[in-house]
Each structure stands twice: as C-alpha cells, then as structure tokens.
Amino acid sequence: MSTDHQQYSTENQRDAIRDYAKRRHIEIVRSYADDGKSGLRIDGREALQQLIQDVQSGSADFKLVLVYDISRWGRFQDADESAYYEYVCRRAGINVVYCAEQFENDGSVSATIIKNVKRAMAGEYSRELSTKVFAGQCRLIELGFRQGGPAGYGLRRMLVNQVGESKGELARGEHKSHQTDRVILVPGPPREIRVVNQMFRWLIEAGLAESDIATKLNALDIRTDFGRAWTRGTVHEVLTNEKYIGNNVYNRRSFKLKRIHVSNAPEMWIRKEAAFESIVPHEVFAAAQEIILARARRYSNDELLEQLRTLYMRRGFLSGLIINETDGMPSSSVYAQRFGSLVRAYQAVGFMPDRDYRYIEINRYLRRMHPQVVAETQERIIQLGAEVVRHKATDLLTIDGEFTLSIVLARCHVPVAGQYRWKVRFDTSLFPDITVLVRLDYENRAALDYYVLPRLDFYASKLSLTDKNAIELDSYRFDSLEYLYSLTERVPFRRAA
C-alpha cells in the first residue's frame, strides 16, 4: 500500500485474505507486506523482492500465494511487469490466487483477458491520479502556497490555516498535520536577511564571482541553513532563486510516476508573483540576473557542450549538483536555459540519464563527511577529559578503555507517499557498546538528529526510520550529541569508600 487512508491498507488486505483462507481451509504460513510503499516500481519494495527471491531460490515453504487483487502486485506503467511476477511463481509450481477478484485464476482465456485489462487499468489509475495531483499542486502554487522543500537561507516556513491565519513557524523536519493547512514563506532572522543582501552587493558592486562569495562567507564563519560551508552552487542558488523577491515558482524539475528527474523548460514553470514578502529588492535581483547571464554569454553553445563533455568524461555521469560545484563551469541553469533543459544538454554530449544518479553524489559526500564527524566527536570527548583511541581501519572509538563507540550516517531517501525514510545497515562485526546513528536532513547535507543506541537494546543488523517512529525508538533520539558527551565526561570524586 502507498498510504494509510485507503481501502488498500495492509490491515484490510490481511483481514480479507485471512477470511478467504479460513473459508477454504488454507493455512497462512508467511506474510509479505510493503507498508507505505509506492506500487509504481519494485525499487524499495523489499517484501515483494523477498517473495520473488524465496520463490526463485526454492526456499519457499508454501504452495499458494494469496493476493488481495491484481493491482497489489503494483500499478506498473508496463502491464507485463506484474504478469511477469505471477509467472515467476507459477514457473516454480506455486499458484497465485486473487482473493477479492470475481473470477478464478485458473488459466482460462476469460481469466487471462480480465487480468490483462485490470493490469492496464492499474497503471492507468496511477497516470490519472498523477495528473490530478499535479493540477492540484499547480492550483495551490497559483494561490501563493509553498509546495514542499526547505525554505532556504534567510527564509522560514510558516503554517497557515484555510483562511490564511498564522499557526506558527515550522521547524526543519516538521510538516503540517491538517489537510486544510497550508505553508507559506516568511522572512527569516534579520541577520540572515542581511547576509543574503550582502551576497547580492558583493556580486553587483564588487563584481565577485560566486566561488569568491562562498570563500568570504566561510571566512566569516557563516554557515548555510543546513549548517555546512558555502559552495559556488549554494551561493548560485541564493542569487538566482525568485523566492527571495517573493515569487512562488514550481515545476522547475519533475519526477512523475517515479521515472527520471527532469529539468523542465522555463515555459513549463508555474509562477505566482508577489506570493510572499520579498527580502531582496526587485531591482537588485534583476541586476544580479543580468550579471549572471552576461557571464554565461561568454560561451557559445559549442563551448558550453565542450565543457560539459569534458566534465562527463572525467566524472562518468552528470547532474545539476556536479555542474554547479565544478569550478570554472557555467551553472546548470545556464545549460537549462540555453538548451531548453538539462536532459537535452546531457543528450548532446552522449549522456543518457536513464535513472537518478543523485545517490552516487550523496554516497560520495557521506564518505567525505563520516571521518569529519568522527574526528569532531573524538576531539569533543577529549576536551571533556576522556582518553580516546581511534581505530584507523574502522573508525571505532574506544573511550577510556571502558567502552567502544561507532558512528553511522543514515542518508534520507526520496519520500514515498509523502514519507521520508532513513535506512541503515550496521556493521555487526564491530560489536560497539554504543552506536551513534546520525540521521541526515532531507537534502542529505547536514545532521538532522542523532540516535544514541546501546548494544544491549539494539542488536539488529539494519534499521528503518521515518519522520515519526515508535516511542521505544524515539526515546533514544536527541537533537545534539550533548547527552553522549555527558556520558563520557570524567567526574572526580572527593573521596572513595
């Protein structure tokens, strides 16, 4: 199931399957359920993948697979995909029974025709729903409401009710709780607003490049809204985003039906001007855009493609983030404007983005981030008077020779049915006394919170988290590592018995 608010909740399916089995004297020996998972792709559906693996490996201890109805295999855009999974079961001698369908899955011509029609209908349902949802989102944008994503440096998200009355500011990671509530952008702290305007002045008055502006901000120890250092790409995002002059822009990128991410041409963008309070004067923003575009006009189309081709040959794949973070490269927005979209620019240099490669960049960033987090934790514990030994191969920390500490980073996965997920696998061979699970924010750029997990209570090899978890798990959650540091701090006794 993809959401809880529908007839296809796993509990309803389970009850229907149980009743079906009881009437026919079938013993249910195993259940496979993908809670909160989209049926558009098999990616991320661990239960379905496990079912297929059990069937193909011959380890299945059952002779029937009971499915609620045909659409529960998935609402695949290719109707043959769900047919394939049923065929895999039949080939292994395991029959498939649909408990809520009005026909017997007996291989007859009529059953085959009905199944094919219903598989196509399942995919069509997703396409129609996608169109309706997109139309609704565009309508909300035109009404001036924010649709997803972080506010950005210098801005904050404000929750309002259906008549526009403020209900309070949303902190990072918080979401609306009522269907009729909406979100708008409001100015952030005065200090951040001053920094944003200073960035525009450095560009316009001092003529600084975006990388130079990032260097100055880092030298002043100013961090982004995610608490990390500024880069050319993050500076460019501030200098080119219309939300700083109050415009609400949507559909610059799309990810419909769980297919590839696409950068849309400007004429496809949905825009509502003056939707929010501006924190940058319009004339200043317009002057900045002229400078940025003028710098880009130095390159012909051939020159732009040559730089992109060289980057592709060096990195092996392309994305907007890679382009923006590469010194000397025009920004990704330049390529999108010049060639209509990033995808068209990719295709012109021979790169065909048949899938989302962001996870490669994220994993590379995590590999750089992990030793930094370990080093910072080690240094902080040492400052508190403890002796820390760091194992070079595993980064395992031994505190005062008394207990061991392992630090694990968990990246945030793309939301399914509106729910973010963090999946982590622990290295059980280390056997640390305490595992610190650092959960990254939605952009996978900074720490969102921390879970301090003692081995006595947590010994599983993997863990899956959402925004809201059971109290048994969230009781170990902390906004910072101060609690951990308090555990390592040495406390002198005045006397001993």
TrEMBL record:
<dbReference type="Pfam" id="PF07508">
    <property type="entry name" value="Recombinase"/>
</dbReference>
<dbReference type="GO" id="GO:0000150">
    <property type="term" value="F:DNA strand exchange activity"/>
</dbReference>
<dbReference type="GO" id="GO:0003677">
    <property type="term" value="F:DNA binding"/>
</dbReference>
<feature type="domain" description="Recombinase">
    <location>
        <begin position="175"/>
        <end position="298"/>
    </location>
</feature>
<dbReference type="InterPro" id="IPR038109">
    <property type="entry name" value="DNA_bind_recomb_sf"/>
</dbReference>
<dbReference type="InterPro" id="IPR050639">
    <property type="entry name" value="SSR_resolvase"/>
</dbReference>
<dbReference type="Pfam" id="PF00239">
    <property type="entry name" value="Resolvase"/>
</dbReference>
<dbReference type="InterPro" id="IPR036162">
    <property type="entry name" value="Resolvase-like_N_sf"/>
</dbReference>
<dbReference type="InterPro" id="IPR011109">
    <property type="entry name" value="DNA_bind_recombinase_dom"/>
</dbReference>
<dbReference type="InterPro" id="IPR006119">
    <property type="entry name" value="Resolv_N"/>
</dbReference>
<feature type="domain" description="Resolvase/invertase-type recombinase catalytic">
    <location>
        <begin position="1"/>
        <end position="144"/>
    </location>
</feature>
<protein>
    <submittedName>
        <fullName>Recombinase family protein</fullName>
    </submittedName>
</protein>
